Amino acid sequence: DAKTTQPPSMDCAEGRAANLPCNHSTISGNEYVYWYRQIHSQGPQYIIHGLKNNETNEMASLIITEDRKSSTLILPHATLRDTAVYYCIVTSGGGADGLTFGKGTHLIIQP
Amino acid sequence: EPEVTQTPSHQVTQMGQEVILRCVPISNHLYFYWYRQILGQKVEFLVSFYNNEISEKSEIFDDQFSVERPDGSNFTLKIRSTKLEDSAMYFCATGKRNEQFFGPGTRLTVL
């Protein structure tokens, strides 16, 4: 799986959009970009994933650059409950593949 | 919304004892996983299970560990002879293909 690089921490004001960057310059053609988050020692929670097109669901939007070497997770209206560690994971996405978690970005939503 | 459940939530055991951690997957999921997270460290993949056999395992998953689905519903992780360094939060995850849904975890404390 390709390596990812994320900032260790970020702050965002409540109600504003939180934009979390991820670099994955060694991503290969068949690898997806996945985002998970972990709220204070709970089990990680799936957020969104994409291959090359931008994706949106009820939780977030995922913007992948045209060269696929980086991506941005967008939480459109951050709330205090969005405070968590966010993980960007690149994987081929086969069902049996284990996920390789890095250190992620600790996003702190400020009131 | 269906959830992955894990029992017990907290297990305390003596070094050298066997422990079995249990997981009830979401009913129509086909893939099953175990991860662990030592306090303050990254989430680490242990093993994936599909079609009643191990699909992938990490270097952590040595002969002390085993997994099974004894009754076609529960998914268990057995540690045969626990060591102090096995103290961690153990997360079960289940999925259909592209997403993994994590349980709340079992905190294992080895004394």
Describe the overall structure.
- The complex is a heterodimer of chains A (111) and B (111).
- Chain A is an all-beta fold and 111 residues long.
- Chain A has no helices and 9 strands.
- In chain A, the strands form 2 sheets. In chain A, strands 1-9-8-3-4 form a 5-stranded mixed beta sheet, with no helix packed on it. In chain A, strands 2-7-6-5 form a 4-stranded antiparallel beta sheet, with no helix packed on it.
- The radius of gyration of chain A is 13 Å and the shape is globular.
- The model of chain A has no long low-confidence stretch (mean pLDDT 94).
- Chain B has no helices and 11 strands.
- Chain B has strands spanning 5-7, 10-13, 19-24, 31-37, 43-50, 53-57, 65-68, 75-79, 88-95, 100-102, 106-110.
- Chain B starts with a strand and ends with a strand.
Describe the structure concisely for a colleague:
By secondary structure, chain A is an all-beta fold. In chain A, 0% of the residues lie in helices and 45% in strands.
Largest interface: A-B, 21 and 31 residues
Which radius of gyration of chain B do the C-alpha atoms yield? 13 Å
Q: Note the beta-strand portion of chain A.
A: over 45%
Provide the succession of SSEs of chain A: EEEEEEEEE
Query: What kind of sheet is the major sheet of chain A?
Result: 5 strands, mixed
Number of helices of chain A: 0
Order of strands across the widest beta sheet of chain A? 1-9-8-3-4
| Number of DSSP strand runs of chain B | 11
- The oligomerization state is heterodimer
Alpha-carbon distance between the two ends of chain B: 37 Å
User: What would the principal axes of the Cα set say about the shape of chain A?
Assistant: globular
Query: What's the β-strand tally of chain A?
Result: 9
The helix content of chain A, as a percent range, equals under 10%
Overall SS class of chain A? mainly beta
Structure classification of chain B:
mainly beta
